[in-house]
Design a protein that fits this description.
Elements (H helix, E strand, L loop, with lengths): L1 H15 L4 E6 L4 H12 L13 H5 L10 E8 L11 E2 L8 H20 L4 E4 L7 H7 L4 E2 L5 E2 L7 E8 L19 H5 L17 H7 L16 E3 L3 H4 L19 H5 L2 H6 L2 H7 L9 H13 L1
Parallel strand pairs: 3-8
Antiparallel strand pairs: 1-2, 2-7, 4-7, 5-6
Protein name: Epoxyqueuosine reductase
GO cellular component, one term: cytoplasm
InterPro entries: 4Fe4S_Fe-S-bd (IPR017896), 4Fe4S_Fe_S_CS (IPR017900), QueG (IPR004453), QueG_DUF1730 (IPR013542)
Length: 307
Amino acid sequence: MVTATHTRLLKTLAKQFGFDYCGIAKAQVLDEDARRLEAWLNKGLHGKMRYMENYFDLRTDPSKLVPGAKSVITLLKNYYPSERLNGDLKISKYAYGQDYHDVIRASLKAMMHEAQEKIGAFSGRGFVDSAPVLERSWAQRSGLGWIGRNGNLITKESGSFYFIATLITDLELEYDDPLAKDFCGSCRRCIEACPTEAIGEDKVINGSQCISYFTIELKDEIIPEEMKGKFQNWMFGCDACQDVCPWNRFSKPHSEAAFSPLPEILNLSTKEWEELSEETFRKIFKHSPLSRSKHKGIQRNVKFLKA
């Protein structure tokens, strides 16, 4: 009875603090995921993202992150915008507003505090890309959706434009049934739409070929010459595989004020991006995901697209 009460409370709090979905899975070692991750890393499909090789055991065993872990709570927050870009250069929709790490981290912290006030002391840690957690695997185990051919978590009700947050706790809770079925069927739209052929037939994503990798993760001064003409004007990130996904016809605009697009994101022309000074960039994009690439990276990307 206590388990059911705690479960209801946490799901109610998830809605109260702005999350659109909440699913719960039993904390356990992800043996199958560990094998897949190891094979992916061994093939070098992570490119120069060396951080992905670190803390392997933490990625696959939640008890290494929270001792005595019993439950993994997955939370989804919609970021699909109602606005559209007016300029020629394209930016991934997740980066239109404030940095989601800051926004979601604050919500998780407040949710945890409220839960501990009502339940009493318990251990738990919230993660938003801040630790080696296999978020999509836990989301699928929590019944929230399935991992599509494009590697994204897809919900049957409203597509894939969601941030994923994870809360690992030592509370024993009621667990949701995992989604066993893959609703991608025979659809290959994401494979055919990927400008750099980063999506394999077997749901294996070549991270080192993804436009998001080149425009965000890669810190080299020069983007490889062989990628010329393939980016379709994506300057920061890429949504090509999500934009063509049939399930995203159900996407609805978010209601999170912090994700409202910066005017500059929507309206800057290619010339204005080129002429943007470092000082102005820092001032405008201080709290934006674009700050991750820094002024130098954005300028590199713009020049690459223009060349």
